[in-house]
Amino acid sequence: MNRRRGAIALLLVALAGGARAELLDFSADERARIASHGPWPPPPQGDASNRAQGRPEAVALGRLLFFDARLSADGRVSCASCHQPNLGFQDGRRTALGLGAGSRNTPALPDAALQRWFGWDGAHDSLWAASLRAIVAPAEMGGSAAAVAATVRTDPVLAARYAAVFGAADADGAVLVGVAKALAAWQATLVSPRTAFDDFRDALLRGDLAAAGRYSPAAQRGLKLFIGRGNCSVCHAGPRFSNGEFADIGVPFFIAGGVDAGRYDGIRRLLNSRYNRLGPHNDDPAHDARATGTRHVRLDHRNFGEFKVPGLRQLAATAPYMHDGSLATLADVVRHYSELDEERLHADGERILKPLHLSAAESADLEAFLLSLSAPAGGVQCGGSPSGASGSGAACEATR
Amino acid sequence: MRRLAALGALLPGLALADCPPAAADGRLLQQGPVQLAWSALRAAEPPIVVGEHFSLLVQVCPADVALTRVDATMPEHRHGMNYRPELQALGGGRWRVEGLMFHMAGRWELVFDVAAGSTTTRLADDMLLR
After folding, report:
1. Distance from CA of B33 to the nearest CA of A (A)
2. A81, A173, A270, A342: which has the highest count of C-beta atoms within 10 A?
3. A351 touching B, CB under 8 A?
4. Is CATH 1.10.760.10 what the domain over A56-191+383-396 is classified as, yes or no?
């Protein structure tokens, strides 16, 4: 396809020193769409269901626990085994490997506090419930409430820190929930850094055309595709580039021994869980606006084979892609949408999903835009350091 | 009168009809003898944002008919919402509808079913969410 560069008006912006930057002509509608992907970072969000979230002593405890392999059945696996800070809090594997082999790609953790649903199937409605599941799932950490509680009680450092947040470590089940809530408190501090896209967006909105023009022309063209003909922003919406919901995009859901029903099973597991926001472990159900989703979620046949729409920030650090890790590179992802196999989509699925039939140049532009949503590795902000300050990169690795 | 009706919505037993609905009650719809006004509510502005839950306040006239169902679909996308709204009668033909969410930008069709005896009347409204 013709790239039609000549049809796109360019603003040539004079910069200091005589250099020129290229700024494509973005319509008012395009500017509004671009504005909807910010600002970044967003203000911190609390979680009424978790009384520990936002408390510095809980964040510090959660950070310790995150790197503690004693939470697993055989003492080999910690949260950080799969969510590795130096790999964007992912593991670089196609599918997760805990105590056993999983069938899904490990999700990255930055910006998790902004999510409504957790896991590719959204079987959990809070970060703490998702953390608890990982501790006790046989194929992940294989732990138990009794073993986790024993670890907390017998380690003087953990016991003191736990008591400072939750009080005495009494009933095993309550300690397991407390540990999960401390883990969530730390994970909620993980925030993706600002990117070249954010600088472009903000400059465009304030009318600083020179600054906006520093955004690469390829990324600008890719952005036009993303919010325009590609329809990508229909699902990859908002500052996180996700609407937080679920979709069937034609990625096969067959796994060894059966099928991965995705969201369909996720909703059933969510509603059957005593750790959801409607259950007894919600710390403030009367003020938990986020329980609305759990209260009203609807199970439909079309949910079969749907998986969560992932956020796109820092995606350069989190290959491979898709719920099953089946696409190795961003170029593969772009090709997937360009050559979308409509035969794989649900008969009652999303009608606007069509193959984009991108040219090689358009594919490169779209990939350039996607890459502009990532800052250099190690830029993720985290809290809970011994000094109490937030940090990034190596500062987010284990400390005790 | 409207202030009294709003007070009635807050105080069960003091339900006052406020018919016909006015522009101040929200977007106005009419199908035969049934009139309806709806407005969206959310903790922050704007009231309807992609991927955020919101509620509706609905005034139905005549006030003795029942709002039985509220739902929304994206006709071009061939799907509806991922959430099932719940209806709460506030009295005087006023209803509160909880649990809606438009999870994509685009055209949404909002549907209200109103029952009077064995007759159901459907009122629909279109909106384009950006």
Report:
1. 31
2. A270
3. yes
4. yes
